[in-house]
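We now fix the convention by which a protein and its fold are recorded. The integers have meaning only within a learned vocabulary of local backbone shapes. A record is reproduced here so that you can trace the correspondence yourselves:
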Amino acid sequence: MAASLRQRALRGDRLIGALLRMPSEELVEMSAVAGMDFVLIDCEHGPADVIALRHHIVLASVHGVPVIVRVGEDDPGQILRVLDQGAQGVLVPHIDSREQADAVVTAALYPPDGTRGFATYSRAGRFGTVPAAEHRAWFLENTLVLGMIESPDAVAAVREIAGAHRLDGLMIGPSDLAAASGPSDPSLPEATAKVDAALRAEGRLRMDIVGDAAAAQAAFADGAQLVVYNLAHSLMNHLEHLVEGRPWPRRTPTGPTPTQR
């Protein structure tokens, strides 16, 4: 049996993935064909419909690509449902304290490590064909549990957050962190350095979000184990570059401005 995403990350593999929002079935398949190690589906800033999510997870599994789901904050019910559908991991936003990190782990794992509702008849249990003990053991060992640092409070508490039992790693949300920070708070580079130091000290995984291959290479060189492309950003940059192939003048975009949408 192939190693899980968590096993690969913990053994030191450098893994690259794509962040996308539903509906994006074709982008899931294209990411797999291109050779991505995983797909991260965003159900925080995108639709969270479980039926649509199931379609995306099934398509990824056809290509042998594991899925992580970014859920909404403080939503143990959604964590349960996405894992039941076969996601190998969850990424939970806005973790500001050790208590919140502990709650995420509790929601994601079966007893005795957590309180996730137990069922083998879901897709993750191959519809009841996996023995209960085997099913529980696999998910206790292989569920990847990640949190996001997105506020000055989270940065201040990051050593305690990173030390939460069975929390596998953290990712900084740079846009949220910048928006939440004031003049007296650490700069983004300072906050990033503090988070990185805490992860190293606690032996946790670091996930970075980037926009292009050069940034991905820099992130890996700096110590990230998982790197994810923001496909919306990458695709818009590519499309705008393609538009440059048209002779001047450029067409003025039509439709509502971002502030009118």
Residues 188-202 form the longest helix (15 residues). The first strand starts at residue 15 and ends at 20. The beta strands are 15-20, 38-42, 67-70, 89-92, 144-149, 169-172, 205-210, 226-230.
